[in-house]
Design brief:
Layout (H helix, E strand, L loop, with lengths): L7 H10 L11 H6 L21 H15 L33 H6 L1 H8 L7 E8 L2 E2 L4 E7 L4 H10 L5 E10 L12 E10 L8 E3 L2 E3 L2 E3 L1 E9 L9 E6 L10 E8 L4 H17 L12 E9 L2 E10 L12 E4 L2 E13 L8
């Protein structure tokens, strides 16, 4: 919910009144807890291809609709489950090298996988986030999957660059069954897939946490997993100047009017939508003197929990703030650490005077 303080009942009244607050811009854990996390946090175990379906325009329109609705009613989201392969059906691809012994232990120990990962080139414009792990990335910011014929970091980078909002990729060897395991074929032979997954946030060593799974009696395992993160800011947004890079999140002495958290892909456009929707609502409900709080600036950042990306966090203000106010690098909550990264500011142009 788009609220400036922690108590939901108090915040709704404050939001409806259109008041600006000079409160610390703490991470709103109530907002995060109530958000629907994405159902899909990585490719399906049986998948060799999953196209990128994230649509920026639709996401921004949805953000506007969510914020407008949440000022009076709870948001509602729907998630769609995906299907599985037919029992014992042949599986596609399998172009990667195979160890001499067909077992999970032999796959994990196969030196070819380690050498390939450790000698892979880092594409221009990217930095190596981790190398040669025995786990793939699993996070809220999953975009899509391709299976390659060779362990080609440049090809994977090109796929990322061609996908909207892709800011990182993970390439790895995966031990997969040649046919879909089922009751009649519980432990089939293995082959090797080379998978390239795309992500709408940076990837971290901590986000490489999918060590595989069992499909019936067949053990899917992962080796030679490398992660690469793009060195670039988020896109410009229509109607705003920026992005301006910050250190942490903005912690301003005044003009703060609320926040919104979007679990999933890091998307500055969703914050632009939240900013526009907030102004629109306040303008339709001005004070008696005709004034209202206009969102003239927003701070967007990637919120991570224990260094695993969670989603896009937006803080809204009636005026723009400089980098020297970006002093909030995160908070602890019990044993969990919530951190701020990829923090940027966008300023409305022209500014809204906040008067009917």
């Amino acid at each position: 919910t788009l609220i400036p303080v922690k108590m939901r009942s108090t915040c709704l009244v404050a939001a409806l009144a259109g008041l600006a607050y000079a409160a610390p811009q703490f991470i709103n854990f109530e907002e995060i807890d109530s958000a629907d996390a994405p159902l899909v946090t990585g490719p399906a175990p049986e998948a060799v291809s999953e196209p990128v379906t994230y649509n920026e325009k639709e996401a921004k329109a949805d953000a506007i609709a969510q914020v407008t609705e949440e000022l009076s009613t709870p948001a509602k989201r729907s998630l769609v489950a995906r299907g599985v392969n037919d029992p014992c059906s042949p599986q596609p691809d399998g172009y990667g090298p195979k160890p001499p012994v067909d077992s999970d232990a032999a796959f994990l120990a196969h030196q070819v996988f380690h050498d390939t990962a450790n000698n892979a080139p880092t594409p221009q414009g990217y930095q190596l986030s981790f190398a040669d792990k025995q786990a793939s990335v699993q996070a809220n910011t999953y975009l899509g999957l391709s299976t390659l014929k060779t362990y080609d970091t440049i090809k994977c980078q090109q796929l990322c660059d061609a996908a909207n909002l892709c800011t990182a990729f993970n390439i790895y060897f995966e031990r997969d069954p040649v046919i879909a395991p089922a009751e009649a074929c519980p432990k089939p032979d293995a082959f090797t897939n080379i998978k390239c997954t795309l992500w709408g946030s940076g990837v971290t060593p901590e986000s490489a946490r999918n060590q595989g799974q069992y499909r019936r009696d067949f053990h899917v395992v992962i080796a030679g997993s490398n992660g690469y993160t793009k060195n670039s800011p988020p896109d410009a947004q229509p109607g705003f100047t920026g992005p301006t890079q910050f250190g942490g999140a903005i912690n301003a002495p005044n003009s703060y009017i609320g926040q919104k958290f979007f679990p999933g892909v890091y998307d500055a456009g969703q914050c632009a939508g939240a900013c526009v929707a907030n102004t629109g609502y306040n303008k339709r409900h001005p004070r008696a003197d005709g004034t209202y709080d206009a969102c003239n600036f927003y701070n967007v950042y990637l919120l991570s929990k224990n260094n695993i990306p969670e989603g896009t966090y937006c803080s809204l203000y009636t005026k723009a703030w400089e980098k020297k106010y970006s002093t909030n690098y995160g908070q602890n909550r019990g044993s969990d650490s919530y951190t701020v990264s990829s923090s940027y500011g966008y300023t409305l142009a022209p500014q809204d005077a906040g008067h009917i």
